[in-house]
Amino acid sequence: MMIQLRTHIPGGPKIDYPCRWQYKIIAESKTEIRRAVEQYVRERPLVLADSHVSSRGRYVSMNLDVTVSSDAERLELYRLLAGDPAIRVVL
Description:
Elements: E1 5-8, E2 14-17, E3 19-27, H1 30-41, E4 46-53, E5 60-68, H2 71-83, E6 87-90
Antiparallel strand pairs: 1-2, 3-5, 3-6, 4-5
């Protein structure tokens, strides 16, 4: 049985859970992004797709699309990815 939660943060979006959420991850290499995603996302179904390479080729970005079941899970995944030393930015 799947329970659908609705979260509304004053001034923020209304989010119905579970939902697909997308993070844009920026690092110096796709290998580092893949390693971090594998480490933190683990057994969840996901889509990891190439997004962009900076004009000088120093940074790459990839889009991670994954199902999250709550605000806490969404924010924790963001915290883990953003806290990885190889990841420069998570949006």
